[in-house]
Structures are given as C-alpha cells and as structure tokens.
Specification:
Elements lengths: L4 E3 L7 E5 L4 H12 L4 E5 L5 H14 L7 E4 L3 E4 L3 H7 L3
Parallel strand pairs: 2-3
Antiparallel strand pairs: 1-3, 2-4, 4-5
Length: 94
C-alpha cells in the first residue's frame, strides 16, 4: 500500500499530489498548496522502492497519460497536470 503524507489545512475535497522530490515544479505546487492552507496528501514517487514506485506511476498515468509531474488528483474525479497555479487557486473558491 502506498503511504501518503498528509498536510493539514482547509478541506476543499480529497487532494492527492503525485510528485518527485527533486522536481522544481512539484516543489512549487506543494508550496502553493501550503501557502493557500489547503488540506492535501502527497507522494514523492521517486522515493519509493521499485514495486511501489511502479504502482504510483500507474496511478499517475491513469490521471495524466503523459506521466508527468506534478499530477494533482481532486476527489478522485479530475486532475491538474503540471504546475498550474490558477487551477490550484480555483480549489479554494469552490
């Protein structure tokens, strides 16, 4: 089972960010979520062992066929792919 890290904040739905620990755009996405005070979970996919990393990549591909990072999944219904600050800010306006 993949372990999600939880950052507490304002609940705007179930937000899961699939990121890489070394990716500048992933860091910017997490910083923006933090600055906005949004409750979210994240996974640094590159820090997993091979089997779990592959499972996480499959999940990313489900939401983002390009397989790029960051991929932010909202309520298991839609995703924001890449660093998209305006799309992320819309989450707090729901």
């Amino acid at each position: 089972m993949l372990t999600l890290r939880h950052i507490k904040g304002k609940n705007v739905g179930r937000i899961v960010a699939y990121t890489l620990s070394t990716c500048v755009w992933c860091k910017k996405t997490k910083k923006l979520l933090n600055d906005l005070g949004i409750d979210y979970y994240y996974i640094d996919v590159d820090l997993f062992e091979e089997e779990d990393r592959e499972r996480a990549r499959e999940e990313v591909l489900r939401w983002n066929p390009a397989g790029s990072f960051p991929t932010v999944v909202i309520d298991n219904e839609k995703s924001i792919n890449g660093y998209e600050p305006e799309e992320i800010k819309k989450l707090i306006r729901k």
